[in-house]
Protein 1
Amino acid sequence: MMRFGAGVTGRRPLRRGLLLGLPAAWGAVAITYKLGCPLAQQTGLGARIVTSAVFFAVGTGLVLHVRQVLLTELKQVRRVAGAAQAALLRPLPPRVDGLAVAAAQRSAEQGAFVGGDLYDVISTEHGVRVVMGDVRGHGLAAIGTVAAVLGSFREAVHDERDLTGVLRRLDRALARHLREKARVAQSLGDPDLAVAEEFVTVLLLEIRRDGDVRALNCGHPWPHLLRGGRVVPLSVTEPLPPLGLFPLPADLVPLPGGSLLPGDSLFLHTDGVEDARDTHGRFFPLTAALADAVRDGPEPPRTVLGAVHARLMRHSGGAPADDIAMLVLRNERGATVPCPGRPVGHRAHH
């Protein structure tokens, strides 16, 4: 172990020396030729052509060397970004406690792997718990807030018996993160780190073994239920304000979201999906896209996700203006017994 570490450390100065030495060598060649070669002192046409060719070759070598250095550094940055993405928005398994799962996300910021959207699906003793959220802003600036919210969710879903406790944990974690961010901004005198009006929309779902669904929604788009070729909103209730703007109400209670029957799917998304515009300024018709994806009956989550994503990219010209995230959950629990008398997507009240 120690020998391996010493070898790596020894190679780094050597690599830096090569990166600096090659341009110096090219420059030395050009200077040596200009000062020491008799041909370079002549003013005839032939001599000038040869001199120009030498300096052109030197310049080309320098450009190619710089290009190679930049490509190497870019590959390294992409590897680091990919590792960060895997740790932050870790790939979801294809099945979670009898639910088939598929997810996709895309950052609106050029070159960024992770944006301001977040999601996760975790099996717990209380049921499968799901989070979908959207940090104000997008791209790299939102990553710290995404990490704070997701980290809190991954702990709270196992510790808290109901969704109310989970949401309150997320709210406290966000408040701590914003206070620390404000402290750093003040100490650095950096206005770009200001946290005024920073907030996060959050949707929490709990899907129990019998298919019963509970939900808490803070400013996020409601999911769509896909059943038998139909697309139905999971709820028509007005959501709570996003986290970070106002304190959570004292009488916070999870809302009933009906039953997710065998073969049913839920489509969750961030507002970047519906807000995507085409060249004429028209919003993306998400409901129509979902209806087309399930027109012939229930489809696997990856098929639904692929169809909607492809249509979204065509609609937005391949470059949505905001981060987007989509998540599809399908109930494949063959032994699920639906709760009698529980309508799907029925109206609930605070």
Protein 2
Amino acid sequence: MDVLISSNNVTEFVLLGLTQNPHLQKILFIVFLFIFLFTVLANLLIVITITLSPTLSAPMYFFLTYLALIDASYTTVITPKMTIDMINQNRTISLGGCLTQIFLGHFLGGSEIILLTVMAYDRYVAICKPLHYTTIMQQGLCQLLVVVAWIGGILHSTVQILLMVDLTFCGPNVIDHFMCDFFSLLELACSDTYRIGMVVVTNTGGMCLLIFFMLLISYIVILSSLKSHGSERRHKALSTCGSHFTVVVLYFIPCIFSYTHPVATYPVDKLVAVFFTIFTPMLNPIIYTVRNTEVKNAMRNLLKRGVT
């Protein structure tokens, strides 16, 4: 990283943030500070609840624990810096810090994409092959799938960062965004970035698009299989699948929009980035608790035990 920094005239960037309006910045500071605290606490509450509740031992909740950990970590990569910049006049970030933010963001984002795919597979086995569910989804396989998600995230983010190694930045150094983003950096680079941009679109946008359609097909298969189930089982399956598919849509649609358009930055990119980097990690625990009776009951019991 030090070699990379020393080869560039630009060693830091200025982030313009969401708005230049001082009054609006103060309001947004309070809003995003609340969102950050709520997101971290809500996701950690899910982790603690599932860990301490013997009734939540199914593989679905094992995967949900790691999804909550990813969301809690992901929001700490982006939101604190953005929130502080709302009231800080010095909105700079070093080149090393910028690349670190990109690496961590894509590592956690890539891991979440794979984990959501794993969770969809878990629902497919539970609904379409219920008699073989316990045989297939054993603890060893569940742990292996989580490891695959982490490794996949690392490989994805490593590829992204390696694309930036040969880039040089000689000015300007102003990024019209609240975070470091690949397309924003590519626009500031002195060298030709067309091929790199296409690789980013293929690597990230292509992966999001392909996996989203795979998940869409899997849920069509699941819905088709529900016709042969009883009304009670059908209602429970639709509830769990509905929660998961809602999370999938909230995560993948902004991701597809952000990384499948031509290699350029647009004003709407910041709004889309706010949604999937800040609001989605906050909404995930709400979706999984509001629509899941078992999780809500476990949380109530945990709170009662804490009070007594």
Protein 3
Amino acid sequence: MRSTPVLPPLEQWVRGGTRVPVGGHEVFVRQDGPADGAPVTLLHGFPTSSHDWAPVVPAFTAAGLRVTTLDFLGFGESDKPRRHRYSLLDQATLVEEVWRRCGTGRTALVAHDYGVSVGQELLARDPSRVTRMAWLNGGLYPDLHRPVVTQRLLHGPLGPLVAPLTTRRRFGAALRGVLGRELCDADVRQLWEAASRAGGHRRAPRLLRYIDERRRHAGRWTAALEEYPGPALFVWGPADPVSGAHVLARIRTRVPRARVVELAGPPAVGHYPQLEDPSAVAAALGSFLAP
């Protein structure tokens, strides 16, 4: 097991951002790097938060990039309304509103996990807004998505009963089940703190409706991915049981012009490349994103 944390303290990450009003709710947003730097927007995954990106953001700001990160509604430091009907389409609109408030025009986009579907929706709406696109492990092709047991339970009819029973230990066990390289206990605690803040773990059944949305919009989002005309990069952990080597095989066939960085190790990286091997991810993304 890794003994040294890769994540800075969550409270330190939160102090560097602010909560802004968007659509009747408050959303956590950070901007790092020079104000005149080339814009980059990072979209996080389920069930964590923008804190996932903290290990790689310093490399981007050192390269002169202007980095925008945010917590989707229902995640991290953003509001987590109890009876809200969470939607990937609404999360894409939230990103557009954050861009408007931050004065962000065209931007590079980096997406992971849940964020890849938001990224595909943004591409489907306006591909010219995105200067270049980078993807980390996520359900780009819904028919290849392999949810773990915990996700299947939370997404099923018993989800509202199962969600309140989630503990840090169970969260950590589920997380470690999708990793190729271990995280230290301190990092797992940090991730749980963000996911569970304000009862966030209880929102999982509602948030997991994204699985159904992916199926409904599969044709449109697949086309957005494969027809995007700009530079594209895939930084992928093949040991991921959810969206690993089996997804990468299709990417290589269907998006042949894209650059692929496979983090094969040893040991091979799993579902969270930016946490499992932040130096390799920072290097791959840094060279791709630098103007």
Protein 4
Amino acid sequence: MFQPLTRPDLGKTWEDARVYLRPACFVDRPHELDDDCLRIADTLIWFAAWHVSLRDTDGIKSAIVPVPELDGWIAAMPDALAASAQAQRAAALRPRGSLQLGERVVRLGEPQLMGILNVTPDSFSDGGKHVDTAAASEAGFALAAAGAAIVDVGGESTRPGAPLIWEGDEIQRVESVVSALARGGVAVSIDTRKAAVMEAALAAGATIVNDISALRYDERAMEVVAKAGCPVVLMHAPSAKSDPHEGGGAYAHPVFDVYDMLADRVAACRAAGIDPAKIIVDPGIGFGKGVADNLALINGLALFHTLGCPVLFGASRKRMIGALDNEAPADQRLGGSVALHYQAAGQGAQLLRVHDIAENRQALRVWRGLRDAALTS
């Protein structure tokens, strides 16, 4: 049940209380509000209020606080909460700049597409389509030609119930494909949780590591990424074990629980020497989360900007779309996929991981046209 938050509540918190600031009340024409609105990083998204939530042993209380009034609310907080709130505000507003991926530069001022290339026989949507090097490479070049800024190559399915495969087999699946795409000028990320696969793919020309375990599955993964100096995607999954979906569905509050885990992983990466500017976060739609959890995460996506990292969002063809549309099969979820990624773009997501590049690219062009028209008309 919703509980309203008032300023006096902030002075009555338990020692382990946490505060969360989520950009809210988005505006299309910020120039009409002067200093009464702020911009998320260097995106095209402005907002006029913060959704302030206090979480302690009494539950969660929230309030909508207009941008000019936040300093007064922070002044009412105990020192630890005030420091957290100030850090979150600064992190949300700090420009993210660009990703330097070999010779390619991916600018994050507007949403960029990451194309999914599964070199697997058993992925939930497109398993078996690209199992040989020639077919996979051709598909990867097609994704880039259609507008993918990055092609994400994966050699192991992580769908519910998928078997774990040996790292040598995974390397054999992806190495030649990564090499072919990189030689052809494509910016490639490697979708893996295994350190040996990361090393092989980076040596073959990959420039990003995308790890569904947020560098928790393999004890060497953190070291590999830190040594390589490459960008890394930290995704939330409830388990770092063989089945990443294990233990899901027990969230006290899905948005804050996922946020807390990613905040811990960002801190761990920074402590290990990974450049904060090269850390990307992903809330992990569908991994150990029910439909209600996923919807809450999508509606609360703007909160993740307060981690100070680019946000990657991926809901392409996922089961929640079928659950909301009469159990539509994976190959009939394009409309829902586009709708979800359009929603993410409207909350400032910098990277969208999708199967269908052309259709999502068209949606983003329309989205950008609407943003430009609002800003200039």
